[in-house]
Amino acid sequence: MRELFWTEDKIAEAQKFWQAGFSAREIAELFGSKKNTVINMAHRNRDRFPSRQLAPRPPNAEVSAPTRHPDRVTRVTLSGAHVTMPRVPTIDGPAP
User: Fold this and answer.
1) DSSP, residue by residue, 16-65
2) Contact in structure between 28 and 34 (CB atoms under 8 Å)
3) For residues 94 and 71, what is the distance between their CA atoms, to the nearest angstrom?
4) Which of 1, 11, 80, 95 is 20 to 30 A off residue 30, Cα-Cα?
């Protein structure tokens, strides 16, 4: 049987690096493994490796208006998704 790469000691050490802000690639280089092995291990131990998503915007931050292109229109599909498609003059009329 193959020996496991991630022992409890390695996971505890990786957890310290994770909390210090090291990237998965940097942790992998320290352990001599690949980035995906670190990501998979962190996923399996999600309680010890919390997600590091970007911080939410402050409530007073300005939101820029979406870019409008005169040759494209937004349509709603049957599933309810909003998609941007080229303007069809026979359906949408001439460009504004």
Assistant:
1) HHHHTT--HHHHHHHHTS-HHHHHHHHHHTTTTS---PPPPPPTT---PP
2) yes
3) 9
4) 1
Separation of alpha carbons 85 and 55, rounded Å: 32
pLDDT for residue 26: 94
Q: Please calculate the CA angle 73-76-77 and round it to the nearest 5 degrees.
A: 125
- How confident is the model over 17-67, as pLDDT tens digits? 999 989 999 999 999 999 999 999 999 999 999 887 766 667 777 777 777
Distance, in Å, from the CA atom of 92 to the CA atom of 86, rounded to the nearest integer, reads: 10
